[in-house]
Amino acid sequence: MSAAVFKCIVVALVLQQVIAGDHQRRGKELLDTEDSDFFRCKQATRKSCCGPENSMKRFGDKDKTAADQCYAEVAEKFASTAGVTPKQDLFSTEAVKITKKKQFCLHECIGKKNKLLTEDGSLNKTFITDYSMNTIFKEQWQKQVGEKALAKCLEETYIPWPTEETEYKCNPVYVQFQHCLWLEYESNCPDDKRKTNKKCEKTRNRYRMQKSSSK
């Protein structure tokens, strides 16, 4: 396994930790690398076990135009400390914390460029609803499931950026919203649209546990 592939696997695990455990942590723990290759790994894509296509893949940025721009902008934003701070071990607490910050800033940037977020990083509810119902949820069964997911996730209370964390401040709401939308969509998938392979069964068991632990 190459070093680059290994790094991408690690960043996927870190991002999974960020989006899956938000409601179980205090705000400061949400922010718990500086390595540019590590950061530039592709965004972790949540696998879908509902329907023939992964409708939620690259939500809000299907052609990745904004993502490419935002990678550069966020990398530059964090580059100011790279020359004066010793390179962190990828598994150190500080390195993981910086990676989480970068992911929050990256997703906020993508959301703003695609008008899914307002200038302060909060959800643009009207635009998100129109975009989702017209672009993501195309079939009638998808619209029914998607409408229910949007009703919940657009009104959810998400953990804000900790007030004591003033460096590289970004709004973490968009990451949490996307996870909520994916989880609700997958959880309420009609029986006749569910994929039944072993991997999907494991995935469904995992998000059942997530939902039960957040109640």
Automatic annotation (TrEMBL):
Its main location: secreted. It is found in: Secreted. GO terms for cellular component: extracellular region. Keywords: Secreted, Signal. Residues 1-20 form the signal peptide. GO terms for molecular function: odorant binding. Belongs to the PBP/GOBP family. This is Pheromone/general odorant binding protein. It comes from Cinara cedri. The lineage of its organism: Eukaryota, Metazoa, Ecdysozoa, Arthropoda, Hexapoda.
